[in-house]
Amino acid sequence: MCLDGEDSYLALYYFNTDIERIVSENQLALTPGQTYTLEFDYSVTRQSPDQIIVCLTQNNTYGSIANIAHTVIGFINSPAVDHANQLNSECPPAPLTWHRYEGAFTYSGDGRLFLNISGFFNTTGFSESICWFDNISIRPRFDITVTADETFLCEGECTQLHVETDLLNPVIIWDPPTGLSDPTSTDPLACPEETTVYTATIYDPVSMCTDSRSVTITRENPYWELDCHDEHNYFCIVNETGGSHVMQWITPFTGSWGHCQSTAGLNYGDPLVFIIYTFGPNGERCADTISTVYTCGRCDLNAYGVVTGCDYTWIPPVYYVKLHVNGANAGCWRAIQRFSDGTEILLGTFFGSQTVGLGPFHPAQGNWALLIVPCELEGCTRRILIQAPDCDRGEGRSVESGQSEFQLYPSPVQSMLIVENLEDQQDEGMEETSFVVFDVVGKQVVRTTLPVAGSYTLNVEELTAGVYFLGVIRDGKVKFAGKFVKQ
Questions:
Q1: pLDDT at 56 over 80
Q2: What per-residue confidence (pLDDT) applies to 397?
């Protein structure tokens, strides 16, 4: 057993066919026919055993599990190795890399009630492994069902959620509580404004255990845009999402079903009223959505955007957009960033014809639409597709010279990342070099400072798998920006 601060955890030693066995001192209080949830954390050093098993035995006498009658209630085949160079006489470095096992079993009532953790090594020759365990839990698996009267809602509709369980006096908490009449009720009324996954967490006051179930409520929110074709004197309703493509005009084109209409005889700003039909997955028609837009004839607003190159002084790199707007006639207009999922971010409010710089933007956000929307004149929106540049090319470069003065390897990396200084001479007077690592969304995950040297070693073992960006900082300036892949 090793100690980690105030915590402790168990070690199981595998050596060739000599496999240790951890067994509980007392019997478990299991009920025949009852289903239980089995959970524990584990970490593997040295080599991977062929199998870790959790089982039940009739007694807790010492001996190899291969020679004892047992019932397997959980197993892991060829678990991944987290610390390959760990000695069996030492506790592993803290903090450990933990993995979570979650499973379930039904107790047969065969009288085997002692909990065992063991395993198997089937390889020949020298084989050695140490497995560490913590937070071992066996609890009754509740009989819980979460349902909804309707899982698809039209605009303005609500549905009833239900929790059914065999527990007596359970405590129920729904998450998120948004749109619910009572987030602690077994049958709350749900009126979400958008598609929502509602999760009910159920606490049993008898066993003091919790379990959870979820249900997804899909909300249909129609959306569309007005596309003006001033030079040809017509406009169209386009980019419909969240509803069908069936629409009917109320005024002034009464009875017409066409998405495109002529602007002849209309004045700028005249109201145009139409109905968008929305249907559920079963073909049932939702309540009609009535919308009003305004004639966009004689809209002189024009706009175009230029995407700049990647700015490597940011980690991870960013880019900017230079926006040119004319024909605004000193009027107010807004620049809005709109993503494919409908999310919108106001980038700024401006006046008159001008050129403005927008950003910074992260390439990891992907492509998006830049909307130029007049503050008062509806129906004159301009839409520009912004294609995010690829700022990940190459392994890295010097921010100042553009030439690679450092080298990162290996990539992909598992534990130790080498940063080699390729400069012929080190900066005189520099005593320290700082290193910062960011993930693809710009969150700093590592920061360390080391004495100036020709080569540096950074421990990135605890990072999750993915792409990361490394910045080398000297004298308060980013000297180098590069990327690497963590396995």
A1: yes
A2: 44
pLDDT tens-digit profile of 180-191?
A: 999 889 999 999
* Same domain (yes/no): 195, 230: no
Distance CA 158, CA 447 (A): 49
Where a domain ends, among 184, 219, 254? 219
Q: Per residue in 312-353, pLDDT tens?
A: 666 677 888 889 888 765 578 889 999 888 889 889 888 888
Domains identified in the chain, total number = 5
Q: Please indicate, yes or no, if residue 382 is contained in any of the structural domains.
A: no
Give which of 164, 171, 165 is closest to 205, Cα–Cα.
171
pTM of the model: 0.41
**Cβ 322 vs Cβ 306: under 8 Å:** yes
